[in-house]
Write a structure and sequence with these properties.
The chain has 320 residues and is an alpha+beta fold. It folds into two domains: 116 residues, no CATH class; 163 residues, Heat Shock Protein 90. 63% of the residues lie in helices and 15% in strands. A hairpin with a 3-residue loop joins strand 6 and strand 7.
C-alpha cells in the first residue's frame, strides 16, 4: 500500500489521494459486509466456523479486484505492476486485518452496549425495589398510629388532637420531602423526635422514652426513613408489650462528619407471645431495613442485633 502511494512517478499528490481512496473504498466494502451481513447472520448466531470461512473468503475475493484496479492504474509502469503482483499477499493480509479489526470492534461495542443496558436495568430494578420497600414503611407506621388515634377518640382523650398534629407533620415529611435519594440528617432527627413524642402521647406516660443526640449535626445527608423500622420495632415488639416499667432508649451518635451510630434499646416482658425467629428478625420492618441498607450502603454499614431475655438492642453503624 505504501509502495503504491509513495512510489516516485505517481504524478503528485492527486494520484496518491486516488490510490488511498481506492484502498479506503475496498476496506469500507469489507467492513460493511462484515458488520451488516457476516456478524448478524453468522457470528451472533454462533456459527463461528462458517463466519471465519466467509470472512477469509471475502478478503480473498476483494483482494484481486483491488489489485486489478491498481494494476490498471499503473499500466504505464511495468515495474510497479510487477511489484504489485509480487506483493499482493500483503494486500490480502491488510484486507484480512481490516476484516478482523472490524469484528473485534463490533464485539467490543456490543459488550459495552450490553453493559450499559444491564447497568440501566439494574438501576431501574434497584429503584423499583427501594420504592417498594419504602412504601411498606409508610403504611405500616400509618396503620399503627391511626389505630392509636382511634383508641384515644373512643376514650375521648384530650391527647387525640395533639397526636393528629404530630402525625400531620410526619406525613408531610414523608410525602413531600422523602422522595429525594438523600435528605438532611437534621430533618431525620426532627422526624425521630416527632415520632417519639407521638409515642409518648399515645402511651400516656406509661413507657419511659428517652432520646439522646451526641455530636454535631452539620449538613450530613442520608437516605430517608432509615430509622423508622428501629423505632416501630422497639414499641411494637418490646416496650408496648411490657406490663410495667417499660422503656425505650434511643441514642444517635455523630462520631465524625461522615460516621454515625444509631442505637435503640427496649425492655421486653418476661413472657413474649412470639416465636423466637420472629423476635430475632424484628418483623417485616427490620427485614426491609436490612435490604434497603444492602442496596443503599453496600459495605458501608453494620447492623448489630443483641437479643437478651429482657432487653432488645439494635445498633446501626453507618458511613454516610
Amino acid at each position: 500500500m505504501l509502495l503504491v502511494s509513495l512510489e516516485p512517478g505517481n504524478n503528485g499528490i492527486w494520484n496518491t489521494l486516488i490510490n488511498e481512496a481506492i484502498n479506503v473504498f475496498f476496506y469500507a466494502v469489507i467492513v460493511y459486509v462484515n458488520l451488516f451481513y457476516l456478524i448478524p447472520y453468522f457470528l451472533k448466531k454462533k456459527k463461528f466456523l462458517t463466519f471465519i470461512v466467509l470472512l477469509i473468503a471475502v478478503a480473498i475475493f476483494i483482494t484481486p479486484i483491488k489489485m486489478f484496479i491498481l494494476h490498471f492504474r499503473f499500466s504505464s509502469n511495468e515495474a510497479l505492476q510487477q511489484d504489485l503482483i509480487n506483493e499482493q499477499h500483503y494486500f490480502y493480509l491488510a484486507n484480512l486485518f481490516v476484516a478482523g479489526g472490524s469484528t473485534l470492534a463490533s464485539i467490543i461495542m456490543d459488550w459495552l452496549r450490553h453493559q450499559r443496558e444491564r447497568a440501566v436495568l439494574e438501576n431501574q430494578n434497584i429503584q423499583s425495589e427501594l420504592r417498594f420497600l419504602k412504601s411498606q414503611i409508610n403504611p405500616h407506621f400509618l396503620f399503627n398510629t391511626l389505630n392509636s388515634i382511634y383508641a384515644l377518640t373512643l376514650k375521648k382523650s384530650d391527647d387525640a388532637p395533639e397526636i393528629v398534629v404530630k402525625l400531620s407533620e410526619m406525613l408531610r415529611y414523608m410525602l413531600y420531602e422523602c422522595n429525594e435519594k438523600l435528605v438532611p440528617l437534621s430533618k431525620e432527627v426532627n422526624y425521630v423526635k416527632n415520632y417519639l413524642a407521638l409515642e409518648q402521647l399515645r402511651h400516656g406516660g406509661k413507657i419511659e422514652i428517652n432520646f439522646d443526640l451526641e455530636g454535631e449535626v452539620d449538613g450530613q445527608m442520608l437516605a430517608p426513613l432509615l430509622f423508622v423500622p428501629f423505632l416501630e420495632n422497639s414499641f411494637k415488639h418490646g416496650a408496648s408489650r411490657t406490663i410495667k416499667n417499660g422503656y425505650v432508649k434511643v441514642v444517635m451518635r455523630i462520631l465524625t462528619k461522615n460516621q454515625l451510630q444509631f442505637e435503640v434499646e427496649n425492655n421486653k416482658p418476661d413472657t413474649f407471645p412470639m416465636a423466637n425467629h420472629e423476635l430475632k428478625s424484628g418483623g417485616i420492618g427490620l427485614a426491609n431495613l436490612d435490604r434497603r441498607l444492602n442496596i443503599l450502603y453496600p459495605n458501608k454499614h453494620n447492623l448489630t442485633i443483641k437479643d437478651s431475655p429482657n432487653v432488645y438492642r439494635v445498633i446501626l453503624d453507618l458511613s454516610l
